[in-house]
Each structure stands twice: as C-alpha cells, then as structure tokens.
Hints:
Elements: E1 4-7, H1 13-24, E2 28-33, H2 37-47, E3 50-53, H3 59-73, E4 78-81, H4 96-114, H5 118-124, E5 127-132, H6 135-139, H7 145-165, E6 170-177, H8 183-186, H9 190-198, H10 208-219, E7 230-233
Parallel strand pairs: 1-2, 1-4, 2-3, 4-5, 5-6, 6-7
Helix pairs in contact: 1-10, 3-4, 4-7
Amino acid sequence: MARVALVTGGSRGIGAAISKALQAEGYSVAASYAGNDAAAEAFSGETGIKTYKWNVADYEASKAGIAQVEADLGPIDVVVANAGITKDAPFHKMTPEQWNAVIDTNLTGVFNTVHPVWPGMRERKFGRVIVISSINGQKGQFAQVNYAATKAGDLGIVKSLAQEGARAGITANAVCPGYIATEMVMAVPEKVRESIIGQIPAGRLGEPEEIARCVAFLASGDAGFINGSTISANGAQFFV
Length: 240
Ligand code: CAA
C-alpha cells in the first residue's frame, strides 16, 4: 500500500510543488488549505490530489481534519508542516495582532499539525516529519521579527522531535528555503525584491520544485539516518 503524506498549505506555492512531488513518488497525498477554495479546487482538478480545509492555527480543527484524512487515506506516514503566512512590518510598527497571527499559524500551527499524528507514528514505528522553515529563521530579516521568530522556532522543534522520535523510527527535519518564486515573495514591493535578488549569488529566485525535491528526499527511505537536520536551499545567499 502506498504511504500516506499530508502537506499543510499544500494547494499553493511551495506546498503545491511538494504535494505534486510526493504524488509523483507514489504517495497518497492529502493537501490542507486554510481559505482559498478556488485555488484548492483548481489544484485538485489539475492533480487529482484531495484537498481539506482547516485552519492550522486551531488545534481542534487540525485534529478533526487529520482524522478525516486518515479515515479517507489511511494512517499518515509523512507530515509536511508547510502552511505559513507573513505579516511584515518594521518592529516599531508591528502590532500585537501581526505578531500573534504569525505565531499562531507558523509556530503553533506546526505543533497542531504534528501532535495529532505523532502517537500513530510512534505506534507504527515509522514517521517522517518535515517542517518548512526559512532562510529568515536562520539569519533574521528586516520587518520580520514575527516570521523569523517562528522559523527559528521550527528548527528547535525538529531538533527536539528528532531526539524523541529516533528510537521509534521517526525522523524530523527542516528545509530552509531561500527566496522562492511564489506569491509570498512576489508580494514584497518590487524594488525591495530586486534588491533581495541582488543579494543571491545564484542571481535568481528559487523554484518551488527545488524545495519539493528536498522534501521528497527527506521523506524517502534513503534519508532514514538524517534526523534533526536542516537542508538549506537558498542559492548561496546564507550559510549557517
Ligand atoms: N534593510 C534595511 N532597511 C530596510 C530594509 C532592509 N531590508 N527594508 C526596508 N528598509 C528601510 C527602508 O529603506 C525605509 O527606510 P527610510 O525610512 O530611511 O527610507 C524603511 O526601512 C521602511 O520604512 P517604512 O516605514 O516605509 O516601512 P513600511 O512600514 O512601509 O514597511 C516593509 C515596508 C514591510 C518593510 C517592506 O519594505 C517589505 O515588505 N520589505 C520586505 C521584507 C521581507 O524581505 N520579507 C520577506 C518576505 S518573503 C518570505 O518571508 C519568504 C521567506 O521565507 C524567504
């Protein structure tokens, strides 16, 4: 039987590329999304991948959504915590609402996504947890105190989960994308984006598929001894 993979935020951007890459590797894939029904419908129509609507910031909604995925497809073997948002503002202008929204979705959302699948992974002695962090969690970013905090937090999550899951056959790793050609990066003002591209030695934005291939590798049997690690894919913009 095909292994089952859940990708949160899996119908758009990097998440959509991840869903497709895992489908191409033979997984039964479920893609969750928060609100964009039209994009989810188009994605399902194009790929045949089933989409599920819930807010990752809500623990009970996540638990119920994951239970539905497992009822439809079977126990989740691979969970990709990808859903994330930005609410950029210089710190002196950042509001508590902007801080809380990003923490709730990007950081608590990882807890809410992984926690419900963790007991089953422990019982079955197999699991792959892959969290999509960011270059900006590694280096910080002007106007992203909230986002950088969550993405740095992701690295703490996987390093801790790796130690807890290792004996149960579960690996937990992070991928840190650099600036990738997605709606999130395209929303950055053009002048700022051009200056960011100027700081990328590769001279270009990354492609979502370049992140998806990292995830497919971490999900594979070949990556069984890679645990608590971070793959950085950023065109040489930053080294840890
Ligand atoms: N470094 C230093 N200074 C910067 C800066 C930077 N990266 N970006 C902007 N500034 C400066 C501006 O030059 C300007 O300075 P002056 O006032 O002296 O002219 C000042 O900061 C901007 O101040 P404003 O009060 O005008 O800022 P604003 O309230 O209009 O906010 C902004 C603008 C939100 C910061 C906007 O510039 C922006 O979106 N910047 C991009 C932030 C960014 O890189 N986000 C990453 C999004 S992609 C992503 O997150 C995906 C991923 O994982 C990589």
